[in-house]
Design brief:
Layout lengths: L13 H4 L12 H17 L5 H5 L7 E2 L5 E5 L6 H12 L2 E4 L2 E4 L3 E4 L10 H15 L9 E4 L11 H7 L9 E2 L6 E5 L3 E5 L10 H10 L8 E6 L3 H6 L5 H14 L5 E7 L5 E6 L6 E5 L16 E3 L13 E9 L2 H9 L4 H4 L1 H26 L4 H30 L4 H33 L4 H35 L5 H6 L7 E9 L2 E9 L6 E3 L10 E3 L5 E3 L4 E4 L1
Parallel strand pairs: 1-8, 2-5, 5-6, 6-7, 9-10, 10-11, 11-13
Antiparallel strand pairs: 2-16, 3-4, 8-9, 12-13, 12-15, 14-15, 16-17, 17-20, 17-21, 18-19
Helix pairs in contact: 4-5, 12-13, 12-14, 12-15, 13-14, 14-15
Length: about 575
């Protein structure tokens, strides 16, 4: 069963689908930058005062037992553009995939590992960007339906988790997937003495008391020797293990001590999304534990060429009392590979074409800065009187220049909060480039006015035309390319590495994990889709459980690497 069946669509339109298929988010577009910035700030300031986890703590603990679920799927960072999200959803929905010679049945349980919608949470965006595409991929199921669980990421928390809980925690169908959870965190008992635990640690670095109590009750049957798959909203092990911040991983380590190790069980696998790539770190051991990031569910592709090498976990500077013995983890596999990641980073030079709205933003900034500089030049030439006259003449240009400097420093600091000195250097040079471009263009305008355009009305109208159209179109384009060049260079130093990829909104190179559970342990199949489909053929006469649309060309799924074996 599933939610009530609707008439199968004959075309990819909102009227036929019941939802609006969206384009991929253009992350550097002015509206997205402004809205997500405001939402992120409000969530950080007020989120803890309206924390839905406190309300969830009053709910009865439900045990989620799926001891027949020998296949489990994990997907994260989805709900972006329709083509990428639906391509991945269709692979997940297929009754079976044959990937590089391996027959992989659909997971009995589907775990969404964070950031189920972009750029911010609302019921409309969930419907259009996530639930709609997944319903189109699996409209109905017959017999025993698969079950969906979702862990929120930071984008799901932007509205205080309100929309997330309405979509995933009220027993509603998600296409052909049933939902069971009533909280933003969950514990699932799996076959062969395995458990999947998903913790929600947004806003702060602690697991709140109601959440701890939930897991103590939900894992009452956990016993010595059991294996655990731990899902977190961020791969905190990468930062902490390479000498960065430890707070996020300290939370994981604390949870592992209080819930897992207290029962004599062991966390054999940690899974996360958040970073939109695949990276697997394996312990240096005969029976290695795995730390895997797989955020390939639909959002823009992220770089991998700056990933750190060996990790030490827990880190030596951990503040957790009685941590587990330290162990080293090596980076075994990344997707995309280093060469491909570097090539994609260079593609940022297409920024004005990939993000026309950003071109408009830089054009607007350059127009304001140019007018401010021209005002200062003209006032000085006509004889501004004394010190205060000069100050009044150049005050607009100085103010705009200071805004650019502060913006450049803030932008660089966001790119890597740990490399403060390097971020300040890159941010200052970046701002100086913008100011220099505006000043240089202003003198070009003065030259055109005095030496090129003839005296009279043509002189005034010609200059107005150059400033009003030439500045936003030409100088705005050059300014956008200046940002692109900055991102390309800065990313090689580990600054603004996320932005160099976000600005391109790369939809290809997606994937998910399919996990098999047997008496001896786990086998993890990392599935990749190098190219998503962008042309879909409606199937109005197909069976009730068939996808609404088939790809014009078959989706070619492969493995990122050979299956990863994890023993208990």
């Amino acid at each position: 069963m599933a939610e009530p069946e609707r008439q199968r669509p004959t075309e990819l339109t909102e009227a036929e689908l019941g939802f609006s298929p969206r384009e991929a988010v253009r992350w550097l577009a002015p509206r997205v930058l402004l809205t997500t910035g405001i939402q992120s700030m409000l969530a950080a300031i007020f989120g803890s005062y309206a924390d839905k986890r406190e309300l969830q703590g009053s709910l009865k603990v439900r045990e989620h037992s799926h001891e027949d679920a020998e296949w489990v799927d994990f997907v994260a960072d989805l709900g972006d553009g329709f083509h990428a999200t639906y391509s991945v959803a269709q692979l997940l929905a297929a009754p079976e995939l044959v990937v590089d010679g391996h027959a992989l049945p659909r997971g009995k349980v589907l775990v969404m590992g964070g950031d189920e919608v972009y750029p911010y949470a609302s019921t409309t965006d969930y419907e259009d960007r996530t639930k709609g595409p997944y319903r189109a991929a699996l409209p109905l199921t017959e017999g025993d339906s698969p079950t969906l669980f979702a862990l929120p990421g930071n984008h799901d928390w932007y509205d205080g988790l309100t929309a997330f809980l309405r979509v995933f925690a009220q027993g509603r169908w998600f296409g052909g997937w049933a939902t069971e959870q009533t909280r933003s965190y969950f514990a699932i008992k799996l076959p062969h003495n395995w458990w999947l635990l998903a913790i929600d640690t947004q806003f702060d670095d602690y697991v709140d008391a109601p959440q701890l109590e939930y897991f103590r009750e939900a894992t009452a049957e956990m016993a010595k020797g059991d294996g655990v798959i731990l899902c977190a909203s961020k791969p905190a092990w990468v930062d902490a293990g390479s000498g960065g911040r430890t707070k996020g991983y300290d939370t994981i380590e604390f949870f592992d001590r209080e819930i897992v190790r207290a029962k004599g069980a062991e966390t054999r696998v940690m899974l996360s999304g958040d970073k939109h790539h695949y990276a697997r770190y394996a312990e240096r051991d005969d029976k290695p534990r795995q730390r895997i990031t797989c955020g390939l569910g639909g959002a823009y592709l992220a770089a991998t060429h700056e990933l750190p090498g060996p990790l030490c976990l827990p880190p030596a500077n951990s503040r957790v009392r009685a941590p587990s013995p330290p162990a080293f983890y090596d980076l075994e596999t990344r997707y995309p590979d280093i060469a491909t990641s570097k090539r994609f980073a260079r593609g940022i030079l297409r920024l004005p074409w990939r993000n026309p709205g950003f071109w408009g933003l830089t054009g607007g900034f350059q127009t304001v800065m140019t007018l401010a500089v021209l005002y200062g030049i003209v006032q000085t030439d006509i004889g501004a009187k004394g010190f205060f006259g000069l100050v009044a003449s150049w005050a607009p240009a100085v103010i705009v220049g200071l805004v650019l400097v502060l913006g450049g420093l803030t932008f660089a600091r966001l790119g890597n909060p740990h490399k403060v000195g390097l971020a300040r250097l890159f941010g200052s040079l970046h701002a100086a480039g913008h100011i220099g471009l505006a000043v240089g263009w202003s003198y070009v305008v003065i030259w055109l006015y005095t030496d090129v355009f003839p005296d009279g009305a043509a002189q005034d109208w010609g200059t107005l035309f150059v400033v009003a159209l030439g500045t936003p179109l030409l100088i705005g384009f050059l300014d956008a390319e200046l940002v692109a060049a900055y991102l390309m260079v800065a990313s090689r130093a580990g600054i603004n590495l996320n932005e160099v990829m976000a600005g391109q909104s790369i939809e290809d190179h997606k994937g998910f994990l399919r996990i098999r559970i047997d008496p001896e342990g786990l086998t993890i199949y990392p599935v990749r889709l190098d190219r998503v489909c962008r042309a879909w053929t409606p199937r109005p006469g197909a069976g009730r459980t068939r996808p609404w649309f088939d790809p014009a060309a078959p989706l070619e799924a492969h493995l990122i690497e050979e299956p990863v074996r994890v023993s208990r």
